[in-house]
Amino acid sequence: MAKNILITGAGGYIGGTLLTKVISQENGLIKAANITATVRSAEQAQRLSEFGFNAIELDLKNEEVVKQAVISNNIDVVVHIASAMETAIAANLIKALGERRKLGTGKAYFIHSSVTAVFSKENGWPFGEVKDTDPLYENEKQLAPGHPVRDTNVLVTDLAKAEGVTSLIVVVPVVYGTGSGEFRNISSAIPSFIRASIELQTVYKFDKDATPATTHVSDIVGLYMLLVEKILNNEPLPTGDKGYHFAMAHKTSWWKVMQRLAEELHALGLVNEPNVAIWPSDEMAAKSLGWPPSYVRAMGTSSGDIIPVNPFRLGWQPTWTEERFLGNMDEEIRATLEQGDKFKSTLYDSL
C-alpha cells in the first residue's frame, strides 16, 4: 500500500527543492507515495496545485487544524522542514501523527530538521567534539533549557516516544546552492552577506574565522530522500534518542567565502575593494545581515567540531566539496541578485 507523506515548508528553500525532487522520481517507493505539501499562503497553495501537487495552506501553530490535515490526508510520514526552533509546531505535528496511529493505521514517522550550530561552543555546547552516534539526546537534555533549537530537539524525541511515533532528527548545517522549488530558491546565510556587502559597498567578516559544517542544497535533499526511501522500505534506521543524522558534507572557512565574495562583487562593480574588512561591531553586523543581535556572534564565529557518521553508514553520498563551493561563488551572487528581496527570510522572526 502506498504511503502518505507530508512535507512542511514546501514554499521554502529546502522544502521546495525536496518537493520537486520527490515529484520527479521515475521509480521507487517514493514515486508511488501520495505527497501533501504545506505552504504559508493560499496563493502558494494554488500555484503548486496547478502543477499537480496536493498543496494546502496550513497554520502549523494551530493544533486542531494540523490534526485534521494529518488525519484527513492519512499521513504516515511527516518531513518537517518549516522550523527548527518552534516547539509548538513540532508538538502539533507529532500529536497529530499520534492521533492517526490510534486509528490503527500502523507506524508513523516524524523527520525533524534541526541545525548543527547548537553543537558548537559558541552556542553553549560544553562536550567538545561530537558525533551523531554519541548520546546526543541525553547530553542535550542535561543542559539548561532556553535555547529554542535544543529545546525542540528534546521535545521531538520525548513527545514522539510518548505518542508512539518514530522520530528522526536531520541536523542541517549552513546550506548553499540554487534550489529547484517553485518559490524561494536561495538560502538565508550566503545571500545575507551578499546583500549587506552590496548595500555597504564593502565585504565584511567577523574578527574570528569559523569553519562551520556546510552542504549543498542538492546533497541535503539527497539525505532526506534516502531516509524516506528507507522508511518506505521498512529498513532499519537510527531513530528516537539515537536518531540524530548530521547532514554535513564538508566544512567551509567563512573568511575564504568572504574573500571570494569580495573578488566576485568587485569584478561586478558592486563593492569598492576586492578585499575584506572586519565588522566594526557585532551590532552593525546584526543590523546589516538581518540576524538576531543576541545570536549574531555565535552565528558568525561558531564552527563546531562535529563528525557525521549515521548518514554515511546509510549510504549518503554528497557530491559537493569546499573547493567546488568556493569556485561557484559567482553562481551564489547571480542567484541572489536574480531573486532580490522577493522572498526575504523570516527564519529569525521568532527570536
TrEMBL record:
Protein name per UniProt: NAD-dependent epimerase/dehydratase domain-containing protein
Coiled-coil blocks: none
Gene3D superfamilies associated with the record: NAD(P)-binding Rossmann-like Domain (3.40.50.720)
UniProt superkingdom: Eukaryota
One MF term in the entry's GO annotations: aldehyde dehydrogenase (NAD+) activity
All copies of domain NAD-dependent epimerase/dehydratase, residue ranges: 5-231
InterPro entries: Epimerase_deHydtase, NAD(P)-bd_dom_sf, NAD(P)-dependent_oxidoreduct
PANTHER family on file: NAD(P)-BINDING DOMAIN-CONTAINING PROTEIN-RELATED (PTHR48079:SF6), PROTEIN YEEZ (PTHR48079)
GO cellular component, one term: cytoplasm
